[in-house]
Amino acid sequence: MSGAAGAAILLRMGTFDAALLEALLLIGVPAERARAVVDLFDRRIDERYSLHAQVLATKRDVAELHTRIAEVNASLSARITELDATLSARIATLDASTTARIADAKSEVIRWVLTALTAQTALLLGAMKLL
Q1: pLDDT of 49-77, one tens digit each?
Q2: Torsion angle (degrees, nearest 10) of CA 94, 100, 102, 106
Q3: Which end of the chain has a smaller Cβ tally under 10 Å, C or N?
Q4: Do residues 21 and 13 lie in contact, with contact meaning Cβ atoms separated by under 8 Å?
C-alpha cells in the first residue's frame, strides 16, 4: 500500500481501527487482508452491540421508563380520586336511602304496636263489661 493510500484509509477509520490496521500492516499482513480483518472486526462489534442493545437498557431508556411510570402513576391517581368521589357519593345516597327506609319501618312497627295495644285494650274493656 502506498503511503498516500494508507493515510487516506487511516483518516476514514476510527482510532482503534487505525491502530489495528497499522499493527497488522507492521507485521506484514497484506493491505487488503488487513483491511478485511479490520472490517470484519467492526462488523462483529456492531453485531454484538446490536444484540446487547436489544436486551440492555441505556440511561435514556431508564429515564424514559421513569417518565412513563410517573405519567401512569399520575393517571392512576386521578382515576382513583375520581372513583373515590363517585363511590363516596353513591355511599351517601345509599346511606340516606337506608336511613329513610329504617325510619319508615320504625314508624310502621310503632303504628302496628299501638294498633295492637288499642285493640287489646278494647277487648279487655269489652270483656270486663261482660263480666
Answers
A1: 887 777 888 899 999 999 999 999 999 99
A2: 180
A3: C
A4: yes
